[in-house]
TrEMBL record:
Keyword check for Membrane: yes
Source domain of life: Bacteria
Identification of the protein by name: PepSY domain-containing protein
Classification via InterPro entries: PepSY-ass_TM
Keyword Methyltransferase set for record: no
Alphabetic keyword roster: Membrane, Transmembrane, Transmembrane helix
Transmembrane stretches, start-end: 7-27, 141-162, 195-215, 334-359
One Pfam assignment: PepSY_TM
Source species of the chain: Pseudoalteromonas piratica
Length: 377
């Protein structure tokens, strides 16, 4: 058996084995393309309305006592959006304790709850094959193995795509669609080849980054081969023993003045007054790690003590951040999301054409076998 034939049968067999799971991951991935924007739109539609035309939002100093009134064991953090009427989010770690009305400080119903619930369940099915939004170790492993197979399919597909003869005509035939096809088998074969070669680079990135969600070894390996040392170490806050801290509102305004185009901000609430306070600011969509920075402010003077940008982080942390958002394409904004989404959608077509080609090959084999049996009878 030639090398090309061995690759062909490997491609066909493992493709048929993992086809269903690859199709489900691709289809749900396509549906999740604009997840962040969909959720944001749903939340925005539930923003509270200002009680009067000249109503002012509560200051951070007024909101902090309200936030601290919620039962919590871990330190709280406050998340703010630079949008009119946007809620103030009170968090305990990753858990959200409350959404506060920015004008009254009252606890709101969770904005966009129905949409977020649907997207959460869709995301869980995409990751773990569960229907109720819960985690499944089995589902994680099944999808992980299917992803590995998908990656092998991309690599073997690239080899099989190469024409037997390297000339202009052969490459043109592999790179362009025909005006018409003699039958559906010829059409599916051409679609599989043409879409496959153009999608291969994007799919390779999407699949490879998914390994980090399914398995621990990619992250551990990355941690061993790249630096975990940040260029600038974040300043450590200590309790303020002398003097008086300025208002939180003043400190926050000093921080956001460093980047007027901020979209989101978050900061932790210490149990006691500290000499420094760090504000995490995001100037992007929320999925662009290179557009995040941390501004540390002196609580007594309000002076800016330190600004840490994405470039100042360790190589490992930068890589993990990019990996997380390269998978969804968000690292490159709406254009990146669209490219990743289209690749996921067209991957469904690759599965379909691949299965149909395999099915017809098997049917033709059965017909030949039956015909041979009749002739030799």
């Amino acid at each position: 058996m030639s090398i090309r034939k061995a690759f062909f049968w490997l491609h066909l067999i493992i493709g048929c084995i993992a086809a269903l799971f690859i199709f489900l991951m691709s289809a749900t991935g396509a549906l999740l393309t604009y997840e962040r924007q969909i959720i944001h739109y749903a939340e925005k539609s539930d923003y509270p309305v200002a009680p009067t035309s000249n109503a002012k939002t509560l200051s951070l100093d007024q909101l902090i006592p309200i936030a601290n009134s919620f039962s919590h064991k871990k330190p709280l953090s406050i998340a703010i959006r630079n949008e009119q009427n946007a809620f103030v989010q009170v968090k305990e770690g990753r858990k959200t304790l409350a959404y506060l009305n920015p004008y009254t400080g009252e606890k709101m119903d969770e904005p966009g709850l129905a949409t977020k619930t649907f997207m959460r369940k869709l995301r869980a099915f995409h990751r773990w094959l569960t229907l109720d939004g819960s985690f499944s170790e089995t589902g994680r492993w099944v999808n992980g193995i299917a992803n590995v197979i998908f990656f092998v399919l991309v690599l073997s597909g690239l080899y099989l795509w190469l024409p037997k003869r390297f000339n202009k005509r052969a490459f043109k035939q592999k790179l362009t669609f025909g005006k018409s096809y003699p039958n559906t088998n010829a059409r599916d074969y051409q679609w599989h080849n043409v879409y496959g070669i153009y999608l291969a680079p994007v799919l390779a990135v999407v699949i490879a980054t998914a390994f980090f969600f399914s398995f621990k070894w990619p992250g551990n390996t990355l941690k061993e081969v790249v630096s975990t040392q940040a260029k600038i170490e974040k300043l450590t806050a200590t309790p303020l023993t002398q003097g008086t801290a300025q208002s939180l509102e003043v400190l926050f305004k000093n921080a956001i003045n460093q980047t007027p185009d901020w979209q989101r901000a978050q900061f932790s609430l210490p149990k006691t007054t500290m000499d420094k306070l760090a504000f995490s600011l995001d100037t992007g969509t929320g999925g662009e790690p290179q557009k995040r920075l941390t501004v540390t402010v002196d609580t007594q003077t309000g002076a800016i003590l330190q600004i840490i940008t994405f470039d100042d982080l360790s190589t490992y942390r930068k890589a993990r951040s990019y990996i997380r958002f390269l998978h969804t394409g968000e690292a490159y904004g709406i254009i990146g999301q669209t490219i990743a989404g289209l690749a996921s959608l067209l991957a469904c077509l690759l599965v379909y054409t691949g299965i149909m080609l395999s099915w017809r090959r098997w049917q033709n084999y059965r017909l030949r076998k039956a015909k041979l049996a009749v002739e030799t009878a």
